[in-house]
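the two lines:
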Amino acid sequence: MGLIDNLALGFSTALSLQNLFFCFIGVVIGTLVGVLPGISPLNTTAMLLPFTFGLPAASAMIMLAGIFYGAQYGGSTTAILVNVPGETSAVMTCLDGYQMARQGRAGPALAIAAVASFFAGTVATVVIALLSAPLADLAMKFTAPEYFSLLVMGLIAAVVLAHGSPFYAIAMMLMGVLIGLVGIDVNSGVPRLTFGIPDIADGMDFVPVVVGLFGIGEVIANLGTSQDHSILSGKIKNLMPTWPDLKAAFPAMLRGTCIGTILGILPGGGAALPPFAAYALEKKVSRHPERFGTGVIEGVASPESANNAGAQTSFIPLLTMGIPTNPLMALILGALMIQGIQPGPSMIKDQPTLYWGVVASMWIGNLMLVVINLPLVGVWVSLLRIPYRLLFPAIILFCCIGAYASANSVFNVWLMLGWGALGYFLIKVGVQPAPMVLGFVLGPMLEENFRRAMLLSGGDPLVFVQRPISAVLLGVAVILIATMIFPAIRRKREEALKE
Amino acid sequence: MASRVDRPAIAFAAFLILLALIALFGTRTLANGSAANMGPGYVPRALAWIILAFGLAIGTAGLRASHRALPHFDLRQFVMVLLSLAVFALLLPKGGLVLASLGTLACSTCALSDFKWRESLLFALVLTTLTVLLFVNGLGLPLPVWPQW
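prediction for all of em together
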């Protein structure tokens, strides 16, 4: 089947009435959480996960994906109008976007952000369609040692590119792997680390752990800081950017899309890193770098296209190899597994309607975002007027219902309570809980492939370096670790992340 | 000298060490197996030892680092949030979704310092109604709505 046939199949799936509806719901919810600071797409997705169990797999995936890229989009609206990044990925958009708004050019800034996101989304959709088949073919050659090495490299890369201390992050990841192993061992049928609690004999449920760590932990931490903001008043008029605006923005958009696409595919990528890199590059190639931060349109176009491209291409490793590269992808992997689908190289062949439907829905979702965002921008901004004192109890209630609904069990609410307390503790001592989620989801896969590889090699650990693909992957992991240990490179990394 | 330590790092290290010890205790009866044929205990136990090493390393580094105090910790907010989750878990099976929802909203609102009685009460009633309509009537979750006598 050619690319055109595949995309045609995808569009026919994505354009069904039901899937259009869930795509719409997804992007609306995504925009909503993107606009509201203090609620991240990660904990929203975790909260909504149980409600997707009853849906067909394609509809569930289309909706969850919509939440993710919708949130990147919504984050930029508040960044431009209120100077509050709804998401970390919108931090860079604040710099020039808010300045433009203060100069009365909020309309063109919003329009360019929309155009840049849509353009990047379109390119990223094509890239996903082109890259997935060859990558899946490559991944088909993988056996246990290669998979183990790939998982290790993915986990290490996620740590290196994350914020905060890499050593803390590795410790959290190992803890996640350990927690992921709780439950009955598939090989021997022996319960492990369950301490006689029957509710966790099949492993700890994914939803209460993640909602506890992120949802509950974060809202308690947010309580300590003010979440209410003053809003730039005045009507937004004249959405249309001028011709010189477009001419200045287009090359920036192209560069941003390239950076976002590449960084999104890399393990540890996603939507947070690309805008930083794109903004830095734009400043470097610009003929007037000193004007950045005063409201230049390139400063909006480039990070906006980068974060949207990155958000979408970060689906590639998950869909083609079954490896989530960031915690949100780990959540989506969890959702797929609950649906009984193991993402991996064979997914394109076994589930073509699901696979291409999700890819096509991303393009449709991006189009919807432009349509629902530009005319309705006032509505979204007015949402910021909801005080946190009302938002906060609502979040708590939805977390409870979500945790209960994940298995219709009250035990899961208690489990969430425990993880919430732990999440708060970790945030307080300055440890990011995100790497734990990656370890937690990948833990069982990691152990399984490790055990299988060692069984095949007769207990010889050299098997991981004797096979070429595995050796290369581990080599990359070692280089990544080296970059953390050697101070010169580490300083550069900190600079890059700080910018 | 006791105050010249990185307290958050020490707290994190203590947590890792505790976790590793619990895991080592929990896996004590599991067969280890050999590298070529691993038993159920092999990987978890190995992980526990590595986590223990991380905990010790982070702890030792924290003892030598420059002083950082533990951040402010609001016990009331923390307890009230956890209590509102507990209220939900306790009330839902017998009391039904309406009571559980109102109880949770009441508890979590008390965690705040700037709430207004009337506004919050009205909001709780509206939100509870919407919750029942959305989750029970709309999404068809098998939740009891009213108290079971």
